[in-house]
Amino acid sequence: MAQLFLDAGAMLGESPRWHAAEARLYWVDIDAQRIHRTDPATGDTETMQLGCPVGCVAPRAGGGLVMGLKDGCALTDAWGEEPRAFGPQMLAGIPEQRFNDGCVDAAGRFWVGSVTSDKSNPGAMLFRLDPDGSLTPMIGGLLTSNGAAFSPDGDTFYHADTPTHAINAYAVDPATGLLGEGRLFHRFEQGKGRPDGGTVDAEGCYWSALWDGWRVVRLSPAGELLQTVELPVQRPSMIAIGGADMRTAFVTSAGKTLTDEERARQPHAGGLFTFRVDVPGLVQPGFGG
């Protein structure tokens, strides 16, 4: 059973990332334009206030963060620094799009996708940001790029376009970062939650947070449902696995656009939740740029 970890009251909590070297959980509130860093031992949280939405963050191998912002990606060298643009600002001048979900592969490349508010136009994309700053389009025709994660051997890339209710799995060449053929990994039933952010554990099983689904689920490498963990909030947004033994799950959630009745049912919407897992997570690589 999931427990309330931090009653954060986030508008749109997202992108939990366990930083093993610091023993801290990084996460963002996209709409509040904030990056947070939480000490799980005490619950103490430090906050960086930005001037634009921040969709996702990940640690850099050399220190600091890489992040997906409104118009493009950015870097910091240390906590609290003003982000500086890195790579092409592909979404500048496209007001209906911003960067959303992202993750780093074993070669230190940042896979980051966008979301569009214009749901009649599937113009969002998934990109690969290499350490040299080059930005390569990988998957197009999306509405909400989400769920990016890699199998432990790096040969499979998982990705969801949330409104489709489906998670796809792609063959990927770990050396070149090129995607091969994709296949349907799992499709969720309409009306019972849509796949948002995800992560992979040490057994290669994929965890998915189900937006409007009140739960997170664990899927086998074959896409079979293995486990369901209910949450006391309607909109879990992403899951990460970390902690000292890499067996603590952290789940962000959203509290915005709830009716008074919905808010009464879930007073901790926008909070962070935690539960223990039997299979440890994977230490996430750092961005090489």
UniProtKB/TrEMBL annotation:
An example of a GO molecular function for this protein is: calcium ion binding
Where does the source fall among the domains of life? Answer: Bacteria
GO process annotations (BP): L-ascorbic acid biosynthetic process
User: Cross-referenced SUPFAM superfamilies, in alphabetical order?
Assistant: Calcium-dependent phosphotriesterase (SSF63829)
Which InterPro entries does the record match to this protein?
6-blade_b-propeller_TolB-like, SGL, SMP-30
Keyword list (alphabetical) reads:
Metal-binding, Zinc
Q: Which cofactor does it need?
A: Zn(2+)
Q: Where does substrate bind?
A: 98, 100, 118
Tell me which family the UniProt entry assigns to this protein: Belongs to the SMP-30/CGR1 family.
PANTHER family under this entry? REGUCALCIN (PTHR10907)
Quote the protein name from its UniProt record. Answer: Gluconolactonase
- Native organism is Sphingopyxis lindanitolerans
